[in-house]
Automatic annotation (TrEMBL):
Gene3D superfamilies: set domain protein methyltransferase, domain 1 (3.90.1410.10). Keywords: Methyltransferase, S-adenosyl-L-methionine, Transferase. Coiled coil: none annotated. It comes from the Eukaryota. Residues 30-317 form the SET domain. GO terms for molecular function: protein-lysine N-methyltransferase activity. This is WGS project CCBQ000000000 data, contig 00049. It comes from Kluyveromyces dobzhanskii CBS 2104. InterPro entries: SET_dom, SET_dom_sf, SET_MeTrfase, SETD3_SETD6_MTase. One of its GO terms (biological process) is methylation. The keyword Transferase applies.
Length: 461
């Protein structure tokens, strides 16, 4: 490590930096440091000096990223049917670390059933989950602890199960205790919709890779793990990927859903609600690795960091707490992107199928939301029909020929008691959540979500 690099004390971080430095192309700004916070976990802060717009914080070469391309090529090191060259594995092909692969390396057998065509059928999520499962979890067991994956320094800084415990899909798929059932029951509409969508994706990907894991258990008969254990590992790895991946085009894939990469060290940058102000990702396509992947870097945005100890942030996108909780397992305070999904409440007020069909024909059926200080136009159109019972007037309103004031005070008379009742329900939910024993991180995030809802309601009353 050169003398101008940050002085990190955590052993795992030091090993990660040494591993990255071995590439000869890694860069970390000497003015930053990793810190540990009891509430938010690890983060990156300013150590000294200042950081200005477009200044590079971190730059990671393509060889040290995990994505479909690197996983595919790594498997090819052990299987010439997958490899892009005709190298003979048994003669000792050098892997990226410069070490030779021994003839009895279990990965030769484990990866031997694959062909390039088979692997190309997998999505990025599916292949990377398999790859990490094999290299991180199974390799030490297959080899009786004699072989350590070259990727281990990256794996060692992955978040623990506890750190990802607040993801609702994990409550559903990996737990069966009463707390998890209560937490799921307490999810509001928007969060529940996200959770169900993600759970379906997880189960679909599990069904796709499960046959490979079953073959591996037959191939390595010594008691390693049951399929139930594999599933728990899989879900954990799935959300490590989901919470740490960043957008990047991948040469072997054409579906935008497969365009992502995992970049070490970058995941220490925590999310901030402000969009377009703090740090941002940048890909240098002129610095490509042998896999055709560009260098991934994080640069400073328009916000200038000039106070020692200032935390340095990366915006993950304009996301509500419902989305953040479902995807990443955390929520933020004062999130201006929060909204309340009023769809169940508004839809339940319609009893005439003709009214429903009419709104549907206009494109205004469902998707009713409320944000801070604002009721969505879609919601107002639906409510106008509830209060006036006149299709022609509602259609004129939807087309902008008459204003929302035309339907007052009836609109306010309907909305106000609805919101007051919802506020009481949210307060009750917060109390119910706080009464649970344990699961402090889950309770904190879910309560924070409802407190954001209450703020939205107060701003509209």
């Amino acid at each position: 490590m050169s003398s101008n690099e940050p002085n990190f004390s955590d052993a795992k971080v030091i090993q990660l930096l040494q591993w990255l430095n071995d590439s000869g192309e890694f860069y970390i700004n000497p003015k930053i440091q990793v810190f540990e916070d009891p509430l938010s976990g690890r983060g990156i802060s300013l150590k000294h000096g200042s950081l200005d717009k477009n200044e590079v914080l971190i730059a990671i070469p393509g060889s040290h990223q995990i994505n479909f391309e690197t996983a595919l090529n790594w498997i090819g090191k052990f299987n010439k049917k997958v490899s892009t060259d005709a190298s003979d594995i048994t003669n000792g092909v050098e892997c990226l670390s410069g070490e030779e692969i021994d003839e009895d390396d279990p990965r030769i057998g484990a990866y031997g059933a694959f062909t390039r065509d088979i692997l190309n059928e997998y999505s990025s999520f599916q292949l990377i989950c398999l790859f990490i499962l094999a290299e991180w979890i199974l390799l030490p067991q297959w080899s009786d602890g004699k072989i350590v994956s070259w990727w281990k320094p990256f794996f060692d800084i992955f978040p623990s199960n506890d750190e990802l415990s607040s993801i609702p899909t994990k409550w559903r798929l990996t737990r069966s205790d009463q707390n998890s059932k209560t937490l799921l029951d307490c999810l509001p509409t928007a969060s529940s919709t996200h959770e169900q969508r993600i759970s379906e994706l997880v189960l679909h990907d599990w069904a796709t890779i499960k046959p490979v894991l079953q073959k591996w258990t037959e191939q390595f008969p010594s008691p390693i793990a049951s399929m139930d254990d594999f599933f728990l590992y899989f879900v954990h790895i799935y959300f490590i990927i989901n919470s740490r991946c960043l957008y990047m085009e991948v040469p072997s894939k054409s579906d935008v859903r497969d365009f992502f990469t995992m970049v070490p060290f970058v995941d220490y940058l925590n999310h901030v609600n402000d969009v377009g102000l703090h740090c941002f990702p940048s890909i240098n396509k002129f610095k490509k690795s042998s896999y055709g992947l560009g260098e991934f870097s994080i640069r400073v945005g328009s916000h200038r960091y000039d106070r020692e100890g200032d935390e340095i942030f990366l915006n993950y996108g304009a996301h509500s707490n419902d989305f953040l909780l479902a995807e990443y397992g955390f929520s933020t305070s004062n999130n201006g992107w929060n909204y309340i999904d009023l769809t169940p409440e508004i839809c339940s007020m319609f009893t005439d199928p003709k009214d429903i069909a009419f709104l549907d024909s206009l494109g205004y059926w469902q998707d009713y939301t409320l944000s801070k200080g604002e009721i969505s136009y879609r919601t107002l159109v639906a409510i106008s029909l509830l209060v006036c019972k006149d299709h022609r007037k509602t259609e004129k309103f939807s087309l902008g020929y008459i204003s929302e004031n035309y339907f007052e005070p009836e609109t306010s008379d309907l909305i106000k008691p609805l919101l007051q009742n919802m506020k009481l329900q949210y307060i009750s939910q917060v109390q119910k959540i706080r009464q649970l024993e344990g699961d402090a991180w889950c309770k904190r995030n879910l309560s924070n979500l409802y407190e954001g809802y209450i703020d939205i309601i107060d701003s509209n009353l």
